[in-house]
Amino acid sequence: MRVLVTGATGFVGPKLANAIADAGHVVRVLERRAGSAARAGVRAQETVRGDMTEGESLRAAAEGQDVVVHLVAIRQGRPEEFRRVMIEGTRKLIAACEARGVRRFVLMSALGTSAETKDLVPYFDAKWTEELDVKASGMEHVIFRPSFIFGKDGGIVPTFSRMAKISPVTGIVGNGKQRIQPIWVDDVAAYFAASIDKPEATNRTFEVGGPDVVDWDQFWERLRRTIGIRRRPTLHLPTSLMRFPATITERLPGNIPLTRDLLTMLEAGDNVVSNDDAVMTFGLPLVPLDEQLRRAT
């Protein structure tokens, strides 16, 4: 299969693109800047310059491709930025795929995305709209909704690890009882690679998480144990009190662990899968949480 991957130079993208290539497919990567895929460690056979806001470049990128894997997303910004990059950008990509005869569209969504949550934050709204637009297209589709994705070279675990090492108190936002189901980045990549040509995955949406479900209190306990911190007082920080500092930190560049939208998503409740469809359909081995933390720290 010839597979175009968008968003291949982020945290998840290089692992995912390489897993698809390792499965024997010919990978083409969409680059906003020449050489960015190579610098990110992507082993793509082809690269093509393009931008999610430029329909003509997307049509050129989709030329000759059998499958498109779409990862591009932003997590913070103004509502109009989410619309421009994620909603309108995805619509341009879908149109390009349909015009070029792409057979299958694989979308990275997010666990927690639903009709009930779409109005909470622009991120959920954009992901929900993307899902609806992909389903309405004339292509086969596969949609993945991952829980928190953990990895060594990105994501939130390295930040949490640094916080745990330097802070005399472990501050946990909320009551600590919301549950999460972290999944290792290579396992996410394996799901996407397997979906490229798996008939059983056609036109389905899969919630994906790791093998362990923990609440935030349990997560921090395991993280502290992994990095060798045995005794550390814990302080639960009400989300209402964290909104003011979030207005400041969310303006900082990079992967910010505290924004008002993240607080809203945390208040929305548990972030765990509701069924075992992905496990039963793909049958992939998954990395346990303690091993994820050991690898990431």
What characteristics describe this protein?
alpha/beta, seven-stranded parallel beta sheet, about 300 residues, about 20% strand, single chain, globular, Rossmann fold, two-stranded parallel sheet, about 40% helix, 2 domains
Our Rg estimate from Cα atoms comes to: 19 Å
Q: How many alpha or pi helices?
A: 12
Low-confidence runs: none
Portion of residues within helices: 40-55%
The CA-CA distance between the termini, in Å, is 36 Å
CATH topology of the largest domain: Rossmann fold
Derived structural class: alpha/beta
Main beta-sheet annotation: 7 strands, parallel
Q: Strands of the largest sheet, in order across it?
A: 3-2-1-4-5-6-11
Instruction: Give the DSSP E fraction (strand runs of 2 or more residues).
Output: 15-25%
Net shape: globular
* Assigned CATH class of the largest domain: Alpha Beta
Provide the domain count: 2
Mean pLDDT, all residues: 93
How many strands appear in the DSSP assignment? 13
Helix and strand run: EHEHEHEHEHEEHEEEHEEHEHHHH
Q: Can you walk me through this structure?
A:
The protein has two domains: 2-151 and 182-210 and 272-284, NAD(P)-binding Rossmann-like Domain (Rossmann fold, 3-Layer(aba) Sandwich); 157-177 and 213-267, no CATH class. Helices cover 42% and strands 18% of the residues. It has twelve helices and 13 strands. It has a seven-stranded parallel sheet, sandwiched between helices. A two-stranded parallel ribbon has the order 7-10. α5 (122-136) links the parallel β5 and β6. It is globular.
